[in-house]
Amino acid sequence: MTIDEKINLQIEDAQNKIDEASKRLESFADINESLSKSEKALSDSIDAVNEIASQMKDSVKALKDSAVAIEKIANTFEALEPNKINESIDGIDKKIDELSEKLTRLTILGRLGVK
Fold first, then answer.
1. C-alpha span between 21 and 15 (Å, rounded)
2. pLDDT digits (tens, 9 = 90+) for 12-44
3. What's the CA gap between 35 and 41, in Å, rounded?
């Protein structure tokens, strides 16, 4: 084997090694790009989960506030005395009946020309 042939073999071997290294670098670049995309998707997912968690906290707070309001309403109704309410309603009904009767009399008398 001549020196030229040895050099050519070494050059070819070096070229093969460079090609192999180049393929590995391309593969590494593809993996790196894929990881970057995955990282972005993961980050977006984490942001979405954080937003959902925040909204759930707001919903829980609103539910707690509603529960407090309902309890206050229940306490107010509990404090009401049904007999007094019924008496008030009866009194209002009597006044309405009296006014209705007066209005009817006034209308009849008005038609008859009595002032």
1. 10
2. 889 999 989 889 889 888 898 988 889 989 999
3. 10
- Token duo for residue 46: 């984490």
Report the Cα 31 to chain-centroid distance in Å: 37
Among 96, 114, 97, 98, smallest CA distance to 106 is for 114
d(CA 86, CA 73): 19
Give CA angle at 86 (84, 87), nearest 5°: 65
Its pTM stands at 0.47
Name the residue type at position 110.
G
Q: Where are the domains of the chain?
A: 1-68, 81-115
How close are the terminal C-alpha atoms of the chain, in Å?
Answer: 145
**Gyration radius of the chain over CA positions:** 46
Please count the residues of the chain.
115
pLDDT at 15: 92
Q: Going by C-beta distance under 8 Å and a sequence separation of 6 or more, which residues neighbour residue 111?
A: none
13: enclosing H helix or E strand: helix 3-79
